[in-house]
Please model this.
Amino acid sequence: MHLIGRYISPYVRRVGVSLNLLGLPYELVVKSVVDDFDELRATANPLGRVPVLVLDDGEQLVESGAILDHLDELVGPERALIPAAGAPRRAVLQVTALATGACDKAVSAYYERTRRPPEFTYLPWVERCRTQITGALRSLEQRAARGDWLVGGGLTQADVSAVVAHDFIAIVEPEVLTASPCPALAALSARLNGLEAFARTAPDV
Model:
């Protein structure tokens, strides 16, 4: 399999980490949504977005949530990172939604600050996004403070997505974590980044 994108993208990184954790071999094909936008639209994803996972038979899957669903199906319910049903599944999906939602807002704030001419930057929008990021991180922090894992008794997609979100926000919106520290989430990040599955996907800043 080939994973198209860059690990600086939290959406690409959570797929890469998941592939590593599940023992599914792949090669990273480095493409940027900025520098390679037209190529991505023409050859991989009409939206020009990453990640794209190219399966061994050439089929292309887009959007990280859909890709992760396929990976869990591939390895079966006993190894899947998202539980198959019931309250555990709902809990993991809720935490994952908060993590990816925080990433969405971090991207929005970052683009507002860096892609517009300074005279057109709308700072109230940046602050609104940061407020939303802070709310999501506080919820993740509360879960992280309860024990070793965010949901249940082992590593799930909730932990993967939360750590990836924390690390991404620390890079693109560090002011949020400075203003509202998340020590338990930071400790979870440090612990999981010590695993090879995470270390191999360190963001390429």
User: Anything to note?
Assistant: The chain has a mean pLDDT of 97.
